[in-house]
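Colleagues,

For the teaching module next term, I've prepared a clean inverse folding example: a structure given as tokens, and then the sequence designed for it. I'd like students to try predicting residues themselves before seeing the answer, so please don't circulate the second half yet.
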């Protein structure tokens, strides 16, 4: 079985939050975060700092149950961060 590209998985997770499937999306988000951590682990300190800031914002949104903000972070901010890692 082939692994879903990380950007696609982040977008799928975002879509689940937008559809109100927060429990399912939260499980996917854990996997996304673990994969991002492994990718960012080898990146420069500026990228790592962006990831920490983004993850904090995502978790704050999750705690507030602000699923649309969390979906936006996953679909836009996280994808942007992953593209920055890819181009670095």
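(Answer key — instructors only)
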């Amino acid at each position: 079985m082939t692994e879903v590209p990380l950007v696609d998985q982040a977008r799928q997770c975002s879509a689940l939050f937008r559809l109100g499937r927060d429990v399912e999306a939260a499980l996917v988000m854990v996997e996304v975060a673990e994969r991002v951590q492994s990718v960012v682990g080898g990146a420069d300190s500026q990228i790592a700092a962006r990831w920490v800031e983004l993850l904090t914002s995502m978790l704050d949104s999750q705690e507030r149950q602000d699923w649309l903000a969390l979906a936006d972070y996953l679909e836009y901010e996280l994808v942007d961060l992953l593209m920055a890692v890819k181009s670095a």
